[in-house]
Fold each of these.
Amino acid sequence: MKILYEGTALFKNKRVPQAGIAHYVYNIYKNLIELDRQNDYEVFGLNFFGKPKDFKVNFPKGTKFNLIQHIPGKVWNLSNRRLALPPMETMLGKKADAFIYTQFRLYPSLFAKKRFVVIYDIAFEHYPEYIEKKNLQYLLRRVPEAAKKSDKIITISEFTKNDLVKKYGVDASKIIVAHCAVDPYKFKMTQLTAHTREKYKLPKDYLLYLGTIEPRKNIANLVRAYSKLPKHIKDQYPLVLAGGGGWNDDEIKLAIEYARKDSQIIQTGYVEEKDIPALYSGAELFLYPSHFEGFGMQILEAMACDTPVLTANNSSLPEVGGDAAYYVDDKSIDSMKNGIEKILESPKLRNDMVKKGKQQIKNFSWKESAQKIIDAINV
């Protein structure tokens, strides 16, 4: 069969980022073409998004492309958000037996026997206040439509599968759970060199948050919880907030400014992908008390680097962390503060968490996730 796989997330990036949709799109595609000997895959997408021009380096060697060209970006975006687009075959000039759409939405098709859509989560249904207005309107319209009209839905956690069943009435048998995973050869205990330490102004010991600096990640409350820790802990373990800025971060900035009166808080800004394992490895504890996640890749990444993880007891996070993580109430500053203090004061607890983390990451595999999709294609 001819399978057309949407690569839009990778067209937008100069390189494959360490997390997020692009990371998933890359790893699933890489494993699909390695494992599937029956079907022929091509990557499709809009050529306008191909800035920079070297986007093809983000794909495995030998990838075949079928790009939609000669459509101005503004026209595409307007049509994509508000209007009905013509069938994919018309825009691509090619038929396909199946399409795999990786951006939450579905496009019309004349001839495809199967249309798959990846819906990573429906956080916008639970926390609409954390989504930009134009994106919220788009998601509220397109995601339920995709869930209803697709032949199969691919999602990244059992939590999201159950969420789709409850919120949209989707038949559970229509949903494929293809988890994210972590590459243990890339994410492993890594020496934090003097160069890397200087590059990000890292202290000898520290607590780490890594991710986008945005409200959904619960960073303002994390900073408030950190500021309530005993002075001797804060003196020994500054809080490092690593990651690029997101949107609507005014409350986060205010919380950081206030906490800095008696706490050490270091913001690194964007962290290069090659440096991330070292940042995890150098941390005494990784903190990820997000309000909501479709998966939470950073949990597995930190565990792979022998770093204990504190996270929130909500959404998919317990599914990812298993019995290896320490869970707190994301709405309670005291719960977070007490959890951090308990872990830091018990070397035995930290060692147990690290050992369990090594086992937990083995429960997730890109190959197994890709094989589930192949099985559904070949039915």
Note: Residues 2-181+365-378 form a domain with the Rossmann fold fold (CATH 3.40.50.2000).
Amino acid sequence: MATELSVAAPSGTWICEPATVASCLVQPVAASIDDLGVIAVEGADAASFLQSQLTNDVAGLDLNRVQLNGYCSAKGRLFAVFNNWRDAEAIYLQLPREILPAVLKRLSMFVLRAKARLREATDEWTSLAVVGPGSGAALAQWAPAVPQTGGSVLLPDGSRITRLASSPQVSERFLLLAPGSSATLASMQLALLKRVPGAVFWWTQIDAAVSNVFAATQEKFVPQMINLEVLGGVSFRKGCYPGQEVVARSQYLGKLRRRMQIGHTQATARAGADVFAADAREPIGTIVMAASAPQGGMDALFECPAERAAGTLHLDSSSGPALTPRPLPYALVDVTA
């Protein structure tokens, strides 16, 4: 079945027919995530180099795990959010293609004497999301193992299946990372599933309140502002990395005033756009990501002071289109691990 196309939209924003998004509410569907690219980090010092640069504990990453991670400026602001995994040859960082060249260049500047080499490896991996009720059973028809309660499994062909957090409206979500020729095999095996645009996967990420960083939002957020530590993307027990003092100070000194929330609007929400309260002359927050919702309109992740995340907010101005918050699918707990 030919893949349905979504409408071109700014980065971090996905516009799609509501009926197409709604298909994942009733059946398993497959979506190629073409707007993500991959950086490979190779060499004897790959792990130690990344350990000194990223927010999570890369040293503890094993072959079976897909890890959430972040890369900050010296001021603690996020340049990128990654999925990362490793094999015998390299550690891989998956991030939006539009920011990949700049992140690759910046990371490469700090290699110095480390035995590590960074290169783009986008063409060596295929990312496929399988989401919707029955997704696990669909994957089990060809995969020898499927994670049942979370985590990842490594398949004999080098593919990885990660069970993503469920969302309030989508009970089963999986990410398949397939290298080389195994990607073709995976696509053939899943050919009977309805194929949908990547916008559907990104809407499920928003419904699950799982954030990312795009060109429109680079250097806007400290990790806690988009709940990255609650999602498991920050370790507070590892060594130093750029921005670590800012991130740790925010955590331990009780300065976590700004948090990511989820909301709905009937207007077009754009990543990086301002969020206003009705009584505010200045913006109180920022749209993190937005995508067409199955019921129409758009769902969006946004950050703002936690105490303002109630009642009706507005896009672009204090009298702009309404943005109605709804409860997050997880608790905002203090994390110190």
Note: The two ends are 45 Å apart (CA to CA).
Amino acid sequence: MRITLLGFFLLLATESAYAEVDFIASIGLHSGGDDVVEVLFTDGSSEDIKAGEFLTLEFGAAWDMGNVEARATGGWKVDSISATNGDLDFSRFTGQLLFLYALDEWRFGGGATYHFNVELDGGGVASVASAEFDDALGYVAEVDYYFSEKAYVGLQYTDIEYDRTTAFGQSPATFDGSSLGIVFGGRW
């Protein structure tokens, strides 16, 4: 008998005495990836935006199915640089589907992530750096510790690449958007 991965998790859900569904929200701080842009300031200092950074906000649902927890979330990931004469924002919308194995207060697992509407948006003198990127599919591994029944802290690794399109006169290029982040989440 052949069983798919989704079928396996559905079997686990029906075998459990209950499947509790909660809303979930998380905030994360991520680091990593290739430099998308470097900004040089008039005082000689510089700042860069990396493809895997910085702040994420996610909302969705989590299902407890015995020893397995499934999460479906949507969110936003952004990094920015501001100056008096211009600013840059590297932003993308995210969707994730994760399956985590529960072992007491710990959750171990992973899944897929899809990033869309990926763009580098510049204003003022930084408008020349604006660029668009193709949607991207990546993978996520995560370890969480529930310090209460409804709140957790976790470590998340994302493996993804962004392909810059030829818009705005820029040549196509691929950027490693992989990152390691700490996430704080809550369920209700």
Note: The chain has one helix and 13 strands.
